[in-house]
């Protein structure tokens, strides 16, 4: 069993690339970031072709926890401490705006419910208070929280998403505009002026590789700067015995869950309990982590509904917590390493890569440059 709960509708496969095609830009990866890049290229009047080794949303874009959270993976107080107030403000503001934009564009897929950060112990509760103070000082909405889930913070601008429905809706809209998208077309090599797949070739001026996990296997020059981890999840049937109105981050975000509209539970976590084994490109769920998830489901969340789905995904992590967004080779851009927050950070980073590749300014890229500059001085 390795099917996410999100995969609940039939999907008509896209064609495989066979033979030559031509476009200004070839985008590799048909997840949320790759499709966002193709949307941005279209808005700028630049022709694009998109290819993926598997299906639309087959990677982390369609297999994640379904959270849309403002900021980076690190909590806001940590972001301020590491990257400076100016960069932290810019990053948080732009991610919060992206959540709102998605909710307005896809109201059936994205819901602004708010999210909870719940402390696992007294030390984390003290950090929640620092988190709250930093957000309020910078003018962002946050409230102390105490409820059935525990004590911590309520972050009202966050929400949830049906991640696979999102990327499939994006792909469908692009196909309606006659954009060429190809599934099951693994890339064999990227050379100046072309991307060679198993059975075809995209002739192009620029390449944007927009993937999260396994980015370092595509670009060996990124080894040490991004590393792939396996994140595991499970889901249940409807669980009316519990009521979680908002998605929850617990134990510094190592565990996370939400209750879906049909009352089922989607739960992930415990990667740090087998950390070396979870630094892997393998996406098969393991007995150890799944066992910990199931025990937590029953003992902590008090869910008695049966487990119906188990799955895993490859996610890229960077040492500093900032995404990869750079021209790694002439006219070849890499976007990835979202540190578990790809639903929002991935889209912003991909659109920024497009703008930079087209010689235009990007507020998101400027915020990342500011963050790295502050980190370098620290």
List unreliable stretches of 5+ residues: none
The total beta strand count reads: 21
Q: Structural class from helices and strands?
A: alpha/beta
Shape: globular
Q: What is the helix fraction of residues, given as a range?
A: 25-40%
Count of helix runs: 10
Our measurement of the CA-to-CA distance between the termini, rounded to an integer number of angstroms, reads 46 Å
The CATH homology group name of the largest domain: FAD/NAD(P)-binding domain
Summarize the structure in words.
The chain is of the alpha/beta class. It contains 10 helices and 21 strands. The chain has helices spanning 32-43, 76-83, 85-105, 122-137, 163-176, 215-218, 275-278, 287-299, 342-357, 363-377; strands at residues 19-22, 25-28, 48-51, 67-68, 110-111, 115-118, 143-147, 150-155, 159-161, 180-182, 187-191, 194-197, 200-203, 206-210, 227-236, 248-250, 255-259, 265-268, 307-317, 324-329, 332-336. The chain has an 8-stranded mixed β-sheet, with helices on both faces. Strands 10-3-2-14-21-20 form a 6-stranded mixed β-sheet, covered by helices on one side. Strands 1-13-12-11 form a 4-stranded mixed β-sheet, with no helix packed on it. The radius of gyration is 20 Å and the shape is globular. The model has no long low-confidence stretch (mean pLDDT 97).
What's the short version?
The protein is an alpha/beta fold. 33% of the residues lie in helices and 26% in strands. It has helices at 32-43, 76-83, 85-105, 122-137, 163-176, 215-218, 275-278, 287-299, 342-357, 363-377, and strands at 19-22, 25-28, 48-51, 67-68, 110-111, 115-118, 143-147, 150-155, 159-161, 180-182, 187-191, 194-197, 200-203, 206-210, 227-236, 248-250, 255-259, 265-268, 307-317, 324-329, 332-336.
